[in-house]
Amino acid sequence: MPSGRTHDRITLWTLPWIIGLSYLLTRNGELTLLVAGGFLFSGLMFGPDLDIYSRQFQRWGKLRCIWIPYQKYLRHRSLLSHGFLIGTLLRVIYLLALLILLAIPLIAIAQLILGFDWNWRLFAQTSLNSLTGKYLSEAIAVGVGLELGAMSHSLSDWIGSAYKRLNSNKAKNTAKKVQKRRNKPQNVPLNSSKPRKTRKK
């Protein structure tokens, strides 16, 4: 499995290709920027390795504690953390849920102090309508970027593991062949049945 430094290099080396391909497909600089930003964020801070004490986890600084429950309930490199689409989707839902739980008491305190009205149902409906309507292209661009960043990480993990297994199997097969050669009985030449000649005195 590649190290954290190797994953970072893969992310940075792949970024120009992501930018070029995104612009080629969209012909839109804003959407290209959103895809590239999502890709960088996912590759460096929001990727599959948040399920362990990794570089991605450490980059959250003092906020990294929010990912501890995520780590406790998910096995490393499981389908829920490293799987296609589901891994990124679960992390987005997890982070949004934490933000909502944090926002509820803060907004309640602000309402008491400032005395303004707040309707959670209206806020959620307006946000959903914006994401599925006016800002649908932007939301898709960010989602694609996040998923591409996660998949570059997961694919490098799977390729690295497959390469190690292949080398391990080759080493085992070589060791077995050597052991068989050592254990193979050697043909010892039989003593000649001809009588020995005696020297005359």
Automatic annotation (TrEMBL):
<protein>
    <recommendedName>
        <fullName>Metal-binding protein</fullName>
    </recommendedName>
</protein>
<feature type="compositionally biased region" description="Basic residues">
    <location>
        <begin position="173"/>
        <end position="184"/>
    </location>
</feature>
<feature type="transmembrane region" description="Helical">
    <location>
        <begin position="31"/>
        <end position="50"/>
    </location>
</feature>
<keyword id="KW-1133">Transmembrane helix</keyword>
<feature type="transmembrane region" description="Helical">
    <location>
        <begin position="92"/>
        <end position="115"/>
    </location>
</feature>
<dbReference type="InterPro" id="IPR019250">
    <property type="entry name" value="DUF2227_metal-bd"/>
</dbReference>
<feature type="transmembrane region" description="Helical">
    <location>
        <begin position="7"/>
        <end position="25"/>
    </location>
</feature>
<feature type="region of interest" description="Disordered">
    <location>
        <begin position="172"/>
        <end position="201"/>
    </location>
</feature>
<keyword id="KW-0812">Transmembrane</keyword>
<dbReference type="Pfam" id="PF09988">
    <property type="entry name" value="DUF2227"/>
</dbReference>
<keyword id="KW-0472">Membrane</keyword>
